[in-house]
TrEMBL record, chains A, B:
InterPro entries: Aminotrans_V_dom (IPR000192), Cysteine_dSase (IPR016454), PyrdxlP-dep_Trfase (IPR015424), PyrdxlP-dep_Trfase_major (IPR015421), PyrdxlP-dep_Trfase_small (IPR015422)
Entry protein name: Aminotransferase class V-fold PLP-dependent enzyme
Family assignment from sequence similarity: Belongs to the class-V pyridoxal-phosphate-dependent aminotransferase family. NifS/IscS subfamily.
Molecular functions (GO terms): transaminase activity
Top-level lineage group: Bacteria
Keywords: Aminotransferase, Iron, Iron-sulfur, Metal-binding, Pyridoxal phosphate, Transferase
Origin organism lineage: Bacteria, Bacillati, Actinomycetota, Actinomycetes, Micrococcales
Length: 372, 372
């Protein structure tokens, strides 16, 4: 039972077959001149076009990067460089670590963080105030949060950014393939591994009018040295497969998460996080008082159930989640679920049977006080 | 007939099978805590260990980057940052564009280029003179050239660098998998796609004593956002497969290239480049007077023969090769061969039959003057 499909998901047979076809036909360097390379280039171009279409972007303004992190790095540095003379980045408090690191790297001490409310929505008044200062190079507001699932009201965020004439960089690495693509952005970043494609790829889309300067003096500024063409083909096919049944899958997973949300909210000492309605269909985080996150994960893993924990980006270090802190939630003892389309109601039944018992056991073992 | 196996090569069945096994077992994010991730992490660690062993490096100092370019970028910037107060990079004139771009990016106007002789060997006296100045952050001298095949005398280069106490960065992206790994380096970069592994990966090895500072403030500084684990497994298996028959393959390809060298040297108006003996076994470049490089490639491609042209890095733009200019060779109308282990003597027979005719035809069509 793999319930950690956020940032990674098992590949379907169709995606695996596309990958294998790509390895056979698209192994050559697409930058060269002979037939083998032309075939690789055609696969690459067709795959990029398919992904661009799904993002609502133009193929010629849709770029491949070496990872979502690399995409965020390049797009942030590149827009920052094009906005010469403006040296501040304004970012929501729930942006991914990769975005915070990129912003800090290029803007240094002039990174301004805008708070979110208890459900994780960015404070639009604060955003407007920060963007009104004329030294802002760009604003970074994600489409949806990879931990708590909250979907931002990007139409209103974009209005605020447009009024201030500040380019809006939208991290959509948690949302593409799980619901409608966002419409309001000047630059967009997406993560194929999050929609069941391979790791080691990032997608960056720009609007035709978005100004960007290369931070690195090479021909292919988005992925110097090139990408693995078969992986791009697999990414395109995985996204296509998701889109064919997007409404149905999204509705089904939304209901499953609602079941877990309702159940978890009724368990003593469990804090369910994020917006119950304006959210990703497949993601849920909740925190358990007096429970150690790592112990919970390990116990569930022993039962054959894989879940995520803490910040999706820092699971391995088990640091307290910055996102959970930003919404004022308990930032320890948390479980993050990410449902892929293959998850069944029976899986959720088993999870709902297992979880309260495991939580109670761990509290017993730790000698936790009774929860009223 | 694919004779452009330099920087890319068709994957063998064994490598493809490893890739597919990796996709089945190693799709999960290796940074997480559950069984699926542990399996991916084990595959990743075992693959990295195998590659490190082949490079003569320690696994804990062997890093995965998103491409050879990204590896060169990170290692150059990182060693430069660790050598604070020294702001010059000294590089041989035949370094790859990626190295020149990285050096220029981090060192700006203080990049110093050391000339090479007519066969492509770096001038050791000039190198010593440049490294004697105390402001040098690092020296970049490749192991073997990706265009003309010349193998540097790294033992002597390393002596010079060590005498000046300057760290030596060795670009081995054209040589690993084709002969013995170089022994003299402080940092080493390798390219799995060059030895029949997948594109979109770079390997960087450091000596334990080599000082390096992260240029990017994230956990995994070498490949932020991670790499595709199945690709790393395929890279390790491809390298292992090459090494099992390295001496035999290397000898066989060395003889094939010697045949083409001798033949091409006898054709009128053809200039064979590089060292005839101290060279990669599988690479050869020659230039043809009064012939357009792109036309030659296209004509050969129509005959079902894929070859490379110009600078291996700028084939797509058909710019004159900086490497050929550095050795004083004709930098237009050139053909670059890269033989993979599957190439047969019959392939070479056909090439040697075809090439002089195609060159003569193109000269006729262009109305080129008679060559004495």
């Amino acid at each position: 039972m793999f319930l950690d499909a956020s940032g990674s998901a098992p590949m379907t047979n169709r995606t695996l077959e596309a990958f294998q076809a790509g390895l056979a036909d698209g192994w050559a360097d697409p930058a060269r001149l002979h037939t083998e390379s032309r075939r690789a280039r055609q696969l690459l171009d067709a795959s990029r076009e398919a992904i661009a279409e799904a993002l609502g972007a133009r193929p010629e303004h849709t770029h491949l990067a070496h990872s979502p992190h690399a995409g965020i790095e390049r797009v942030t540095a590149g827009i920052f460089a094009a906005r010469r003379g403006r040296d501040r980045i304004v970012a929501s408090a729930v942006e991914r670590d990769a975005m915070m690191h990129a912003a800090h790297h290029v803007a240094g001490g002039t990174l301004t963080v805008v708070p979110v409310d208890a459900r994780g929505h960015v404070d639009l008044d604060s955003l407007a105030t920060e963007l009104a200062v004329p030294d802002v190079a760009l604003a970074a507001v994600q489409h949806a949060n990879h931990e708590i699932g909250t979907v931002q009201r990007l139409d209103r965020v974009a209005e605020v950014a447009a009024a201030a004439k500040v380019p809006l960089v939208v991290d959509a690495t948690a949302s593409i393939g799980h619901g409608p693509a966002p419409q309001h952005w000047d630059a967009l970043v997406a993560n194929p591994a999050d929609w069941g494609g391979p790791a080691g790829l990032g997608i960056v889309a720009l609007r035709p009018q978005t100004r960007w300067l290369p931070a690195w003096p090479e021909g292919d500024d988005w992925a110097p040295g090139g990408v693995l063409v078969p992986a791009v083909l697999a990414a395109a096919v995985a996204l296509q497969e998701r889109r064919e049944v997007l409404d149905e899958t999204s509705l089904r997973l939304h209901r499953m998460i609602a079941r877990v949300r309702d159940a978890a909210a009724s368990w003593p000492g469990v804090d369910v996080v994020g917006d119950p309605d304006e959210r990703l269909p497949h993601v849920l985080t909740f925190s358990c008082l007096y429970v150690d996150g790592e112990a919970l994960l390990t116990r569930l893993d022993r039962e054959g159930v894989a879940v995520g924990s803490g910040s999706a980006c820092t699971t391995s270090t088990l640091e307290p989640s910055r996102v959970l802190a930003a919404v004022g939630a308990l930032s320890h003892g948390n479980v993050r679920l990410g449902l892929h389309p293959g998850v069944t109601d029976a899986d959720i039944d088993r999870l709902l049977d297992l979880l309260p018992r495991v939580i109670a056991d761990l509290r017993d073992e730790a000698g936790a006080p009774e929860i009223a």
